[in-house]
Amino acid sequence: MSPTTNKNKRRLVLVFVLTCLMCTALAFRVGWIQVVASERYAKMAVEQQTRDVPIPAKRGIIYDTNGKELAISAVTNSIWARPGVVKSAATEEKSQENLEKTASALAEILEMDQEQVLKIISQNRSLVKVAKYVDKEKADQIRQKGLKGIEIAEDVKRYYPMGPFLAHVLGSTTDDNRGLAGIEMRYDKYLSGIPGRWIKNTDRDGDSLSYGVEKYFQAENGLNLVLTIDEVIQHYVEKALDTVQANTSADRVMCIVMDPKTGDILAMGVTPDYDPNNPRVPPTEEGAAYLDSLTDEKKLEYWNAMWRNPLVSDTYEPGSTFKLLTTAIALEEGVTSLDDRFVCTGSIVVAGQKLRCWRSYNPHGAQNLVQAVGNSCNPVFVQLAQRVGYEKYFDYMELFGLRDKTGIDYPGEGYAILQDEASAGPVGLATMSYGQGIAVTPIQLITAVSALGNEGKLMQPRIVKELRDSDGNVIQSFKTKVVRQVVSKKTADEMSLIMEAVVDEGGGATAKVPGYRIGGKTGTANKAKGGGYSEETFSSFIGMAPMDDPRIAILMIVDNPKGVKFGSQTAAPGVRLVLEETLRYLNIQPSYNEEEKQAIESGYVTVPDVTNMPYRDAMDILGKASLLYTVSPAGDIALDDNFNVVDQYPKPGEKLQKGGTVCLYRN
Ligand SMILES: [Zn+2]
Fold first, then answer.
1. 592-667: which CATH number, 1.20.1080.10, 1.10.150.130, 3.20.20.150, 3.30.10.20?
2. Could you name the domain of life of the organism this protein comes from (predicted)?
3. What is the whole-number distance in angstroms between the Cα of residue 356 and the centre of ligand 1?
């Protein structure tokens, strides 16, 4: 008998345990409803009994430095429906009829699909949004219809009056007016304001109850921003970007204009751009078709790439523009001087490795420091860095702000990629001296070079200078900030002389604007790819003007120009376009020398003879004559390509407008 008894006992225990578990579960469930879910149920009841219409806050206006509106908030209307009220009727059938009638009326006025409207207003929710950004005319039509359960609320929509203008600085907003990218995102907490609510107690049908409480919480509008951007200069920059983009068929062209004395960003632009009014729509039809073919995840990547500002977020290899910093470091350390003599033999051997000058086929020979910068002669900069020494050179990278972010008030700033100080070695130092084997962000480079136009003081760049309330009162002003003294005023002054000489006599002549003292340096660097280098380049020009009292610093980068790749032929002419108009706009008076007077009077220069010359020399001579060139037959030319020019058009001795183009023929 005992086995059976034991079996019963076990059953008894099992039943007891199960009962206990069920009781516990029940207790939990009751607790859940009372404690946890009660809030939700209470809310559902309140929702049934109250009309609660959100009153959106007006997002602050974004102004340029002179008070021009760049982003505003326009008042529009949104249409809301209370499904319970719309369908309230004695029978199911009648309810459905009410819904369909309302959907049909709304769809007609709003030019929407009737089925879609029906689906929206049939939802089992107390309040649903049917449409937003509805203009006043349509809203009035709906109001006149007196549709039961349909309400109209005023809404605000972000509007960028100039479309794609300044898109990569401004950024954009989401549909519910939150900053999505750029300044809109960085300053969202000031711009967005606090939304209000309109609460009314109602009966089941949505009619106000006589004893109901009505509360209106006014929205608090966002603050307005005043940028350092000058809309006029931005306009010049965007025009020049489009021209360079068209002339070079580059992947991208980008440009920053900065006030070297304050760090203020005066203009900043990238091609291709997008329209922040519709931030998810690509600028071209091909782009739109491509976007359509992507998965949701890939779409997000695509948008982020489109909104990204590479001038702040991405790094590139600066190439020869970096030689300005190497020269400044060497001058500051007293290991060279303006009349220091060098001899280029076409290459220099570092730790057993032969590093070539770009003109190794025809070495620069004897030259002083100023000429060496103009010639962009690699071996000279290797020597300068060697004289400064490894540790000190890296210290200066830190002083120039390349070890850190600049602190610009823009989201997503990137870091430079410097060679590892511990393992770079003599070859690493040598290549760094002429801007290879490192990558900096464009904002870092222009900030560092701007210090040379600001008596050696490095500034923190900024885009926003003030917060104002809607009455125009300044709520907060952001001060300009000196980060540190990097080099002495003496070094900075000497660098100004050198930069001016590069444009007057060296490889930067294609940036020259007659009558103005302009300084700068070109750069052309092969893009790093898979541990080596590709044929694609970053071709750039960094400059300043006027050199006796710099008002603007400018950096233009042409990402992967096709055909002619040199910075002197791609970016420098673009910089000239911006400087020409900007210097005049800033009311800086030109003063012409004799040669310039003659050139302006005639408007023409004499075409030099470059036939039977190596291509690289022809390029140099034409550049110094402020002429551009094309190569025929067209096609890609590698940076180290140096074919012989077999013929040219126009012929030598003929007159050509300054900035005109000479065609060079190759076999
Ligand atoms: Zn050389």
1. 3.30.10.20
2. Bacteria
3. 8
